[in-house]
Specification:
- It is a single chain.
- This protein has a single domain, classed as Cytochrome p450 (Orthogonal Bundle).
- Helices cover 49% and strands 9% of the residues.
- The chain contains 19 helices and 13 strands.
- It has a 4-stranded mixed β-sheet. It has a 3-stranded antiparallel β-sheet with strand order 3-13-10.
- A hairpin with a 5-residue loop joins β11 and β12.
- α13 packs across α16 and α13 packs parallel to α19.
- The chain starts with a helix and ends with a strand.
- GO terms for molecular function: heme binding; iron ion binding; monooxygenase activity; oxidoreductase activity, acting on paired donors, with incorporation or reduction of molecular oxygen.
- Its cofactor is heme.
- It comes from Caenorhabditis nigoni.
- This is Cytochrome P450.
Length: 519
């Protein structure tokens, strides 16, 4: 009996191991170059190295294997591209074949998750969430948020003044993170006053972007295990309420429930509802009770009858506010940090920018219309995002239906990842000065020189980042207020060049600066 069981165990082990080896050699069998990594897990170990961010690893692989190559992460197969024509093909021309995001299986099925957000949703559910969320980021909505953003900018400047007394250096990355968390807390989380440097959410949110060992191990498990076992792990994690993302969801749910209770009390007291105060109000106005899902498969998307209305459930509201919190916290702070470093390293650019700010924003306050006149500042921000693209793993898609891009057949289920760092510094696209910081290259307007698919700091096509204009608004407001008062200068603590780290995003380890008062 023991021998019989052992015999079948060996057969089962060999069968499973052979299957994993077959998946591991997927790209080799298809004649596509790329790093092999290790049997079963593929290149997953590279994603565990916080000191060498994944996007920079992909950039190094492009140097070795060319503009198109493939790698595996457990059972996940990824094709990497950095040719602008292929990028345009995937994100725009063949959008119907690549409308899904690249997601680790441990993240779950976006069609079945009650709190699916606009970032992870796909198909008809994504279209519905996008339609409902878009008015939140219109010019009219942003104009109403201008005073809130400015209040946060003036508040962080108070902290800068306190900490730079005597010419001390400060880590601008931390200050920018406090600023962006305060802004998104005010407009997305129901926060009524500033909590800078005293925000209980800060350590929880920042931990998510620091590449915790727990998160990395979960991603490894999700990529290696078959789907039915991944679901078991997910349920265990959920029941134990583990994970930073779960804590943030809980905080958001509490904020939404508090606002619902307040609205109910106001209604009983006969208080007329006023203008929406923040994202929670906007989304509650589109809230509906949970309804039973009835799914039909139309060949392209899975369509649920509950997704065809323009209303949101409480869980969906929590999902939207959570993803806006995370996206608004990290990427905008990083963009501000990189801009600060580049301005300090290029004083002639900083002087030109200060002259524009002094000219266009002469009053103590800065209006929404004045922000739109800061054209050179826009050039600085665009050039910063070209050299230091953010959230580049979001520039990925899942192939939903077998097709061809270029000379390669891409099977359904394959992930396609853009090497954004290589794409946006390619001398063949940007010229011999591609690695140089030259904001002037943007002064004639994007359409005059940008090849389609060559510049994608906020993505491309229908799924381009919905919060782009809000991010630009925050950056303009804060940089304008700072540069009217100070000049960024490097010091003994400034790391030159910046030391880049990270897991989810690529960030500088620190951005220490002197802020010298202008005379």
């Amino acid at each position: 009996m023991v021998f019989f069981l052992f015999h079948w165990f060996i057969i089962g082990f060999v069968a499973v191991f052979s299957y994993y080896l077959w998946q591991w050699t997927y790209w080799v069998r298809r004649g596509v170059p790329g790093p092999l990594g290790y049997p079963v897990i593929g290149t997953f170990l590279n994603s565990l190295d916080h000191s060498f961010p994944g996007p920079l690893q992909v950039k190094e692989w492009t140097k070795t294997y060319g503009s198109t190559f493939g790698f595996t992460e457990g059972l996940m197969k990824t094709l990497v591209i950095s040719d602008p024509e292929l990028v345009d093909e995937v994100f725009v021309k063949q959008y119907d074949n690549f409308y899904g995001r690249k997601r680790n299986p441990i993240s779950g099925d976006s069609e079945k998750e009650k709190r699916t957000n606009i970032f992870s949703a796909q198909g008809f559910r994504w279209k519905r969430l996008r339609t409902i969320s878009s008015p939140t980021f219109s010019n009219n909505s942003l104009r109403k948020l201008n005073s809130t953003v400015e209040e946060c900018a003036l508040e962080i400047i108070k902290h800068i003044e306190e900490k730079t007394t005597g010419g001390a250096q400060i880590d601008m990355l931390r200050f920018y993170q406090e600023f962006t968390l305060d802004v998104i807390g005010r407009i997305s989380m129901g926060q009524s006053e500033s909590l800078m440097f005293n925000n209980p959410i800060f350590p929880i949110v920042s931990k998510l972007f620091q590449g915790s060992g727990y998160y990395s191990r979960l991603m490894l498990i999700g990529g290696v295990l078959p789907l039915f076992l991944v679901e078991v792990v997910r349920q265990i994690v959920r029941k134990l309420k583990m994970g930073t993302f779960g804590k943030i969801n809980g905080i958001t749910l509490e904020a939404v429930q508090k606002r619902i209770k307040q609205r109910e009390e106001d209604e009983k007291a006969g208080v007329e509802p006023g203008e929406p105060e923040d994202f929670i109000d906007l989304f509650l106005d589109a809230k509906a009770e949970d309804v039973e899902h009835f799914e039909e498969d139309n060949g392209d998307f899975k369509k649920s009858t509950s997704y065809t209305n323009r209303q949101l459930t409480v869980d969906e509201i929590v999902g939207q506010c959570t993803v806006f919190l995370l996206a608004g916290f990290d990427t905008t702070a990083l963009s501000l940090s990189y801009s600060t470093y580049l301005l300090a390293m290029h004083p002639e650019v900083q002087t030109k920018l200060q002259e524009e700010v002094d000219r266009e924003c002469p009053d103590s306050g800065i209006t929404f219309d004045q922000l739109s006149k800061l054209k050179y500042l826009e050039c600085v921000m665009k050039e910063t995002l070209r050299l230091y693209p953010l959230g580049t793993f979001a520039n990925s898609r899942k192939c939903m239906r077998t097709t061809r891009i270029g000379d390669i057949e891409v099977e359904a289920g394959t992930m396609v990842q853009v090497d954004t760092w290589t794409l946006q510094t390619n001398p063949k696209i940007w010229g011999e000065d591609a690695e140089e910081f030259k904001p002037e290259r943007w002064e004639k307007g994007d359409e005059h020189f940008i090849q389609k698919g060559a510049y994608i700091p906020f993505g491309l096509g229908p799924r381009q980042c919905i919060g782009m204009r809000l991010a630009y608004m925050e950056e303009k407001m804060l940089l304008a207020h700072i540069l009217r008062r100070y000049t960024f200068e490097t010091g003994t603590k400034t790391e030159i060049p910046l030391r880049l780290i990270g897991a989810t995003t690529t960030q500088p380890a620190s951005v220490w600066m002197h802020l010298t008062p202008r005379i």
